[in-house]
Structures are given as structure tokens and as C-alpha cells.
Design a protein that fits this description.
Layout (H helix, E strand, L loop, with lengths): L49 H8 L3 H9 L7 E3 L2 E3 L2 H15 L4 H13 L3 H12 L8 E4 H8 L5 H9 L4 E3 L2 E4 L2 H12 L4 H31 L9 H45 L1
Antiparallel strand pairs: 1-2, 3-5, 4-5
Length: 284
Amino acid sequence: MSSLVRDEADKDGTTGGGAPGGGAGGTGSADGTGGAARPEGGAACGRYRREDLARAAGVKERNLRYYQERGLLPPPRREGRIGWYSEEHLVRLRLISDLLGRGYTVNGIGELLRAWEGGGGLPQLLGLERAMVRDWVQEEPVTMSTAELVELFGPAATAEDTRRAARLGYVRIDGDLVTHRSRRLLEATLALVRQGVPLAEILDAADLLQAQAAALADRFVGLFRRHVIGPEGLERLSASQLDHIAGAAADLRPVAGEVVAAEFARAMALRMEAEVAELLGRER
């Protein structure tokens, strides 16, 4: 890999795709819209300006102001003329969007939030949201110029491969910069290309893998919804029940990955045994 390849994500705070590869990556547009928000001082600080908070939550700024006016969202913390929003604001915005998507009205959401706050369950509810949606993906991004991309893949990568990688969500191109959010997946792709596997066929396999992984995730989430959360959803659960579900969600994260890895390893072993047996049979 070229020594010029950057190890960090886009300096301007946008995130997403990268070099063509059969690994998961963020999506985005060439003009930089749709990227992740830029908390001041880095993601660990968890501080957002208004426009960054709206972008991270996937809402329009005017909706954010409306939610504040209706009492659904607390005001930001002021530092001089700047209002800073926190991770709690982001989680609450996502919760509001989820409830709207499930058919609740703004008034209904306000009543629901006040009821949870009055019963002491809102912190647990927000903690549950964090436990269920965060930290599933922990990958190191790699950013490079398009010239470095060409140098890295050589003639094996075509412009169409790059476009297809973008459509699959593996690639983000921002001007002359290309970002792959997973160093592991980028290196795995390079290893296959260097063994002579066409990049187009790697992308075929990646497309299939995405579909099957999505189906498997649907199955896991369905099991969790039916047997851990229960048929009535979250609305009638107590604070202690919400805490229990948050713990179960945190426990599920490593278990799900281990189950998939173990089953795939077993399937690969069986398939390779069959392949070797067939090859040896032909040699005889």
C-alpha cells in the first residue's frame, strides 16, 4: 500500500466509501453531503452544532427547531454565541424519528416522553437505544487519492468497478479523495485481487454477502423483538425492564458475531473438504 495512504477518515469530517472492495463501507455523495456529523474535537467529545446534529440524526434543521419549540428536544448548552448539542440530543432525535415512523403524532410523542420522564424511565429508554444501535461496526477507515487507488489496484480495478463499489456502499469519493471505512476489508480485497481473483467477481460475492447478511440480521432482530422485548413494544415497560433489555442487547452483539463466524467457518471447512476430494479424484 502506498506510503501516502492516509490512515484516518476524511479530514473535513465526511465519512464513507473508498477503494473498490468486497467489504462494508459507508455511502455518500461526491459533494460531501450525507457524511457523518463532526463533533467538535472528535467523536469522543460528542458535541454537535445545530447543522451537524440535524445531519447526524437525518432530519432537517427546521424540524429540529420545531421539536425544540414543541418541547420534545431540550435546548443546547450555550458557549458564547454557539449552542452545543450532545449525544443525548442525538439519541433523543433518533427516538423521535423512530416514533414518527411508527405512526405517532408530535403531540403523542410529547405525551409519551413526558410519561417516560415522569416515571423515571426516559434515561433507561435512551440507554436502550444506545445499546441497540451503537458499536456494531468498529472499523478503521483508510483514505487515499484516486491516483493512489490506481497504484494500489493497478489494472485490476476499472472505473465501473469503482462505481459499482459505490452503489454497494463500499466506496465514497469526495473530489480526489477515496475512503474505505474498513482497513480489514480493503486488505482482504487486495489479497484476493493479488491471487488473481477479478475484482468484478469479488463485488459479485460481496453483493450476495450483503443480501444474506441482511436476511440473517432480520432473523436475529426478529427473535430479539419477539422473545426479549415482547409483543407490546417498549411503551408499557418499566425502567427496570428497559435496563434488562439494554443489557440483553449489549450481550447479543458479540454472540451474534460469534455465531455467524462459527457457522461460516464450519461451512467453509465442509466445502473445502469436498473441493479437495473432487480435485484428488480427478488427479487419479
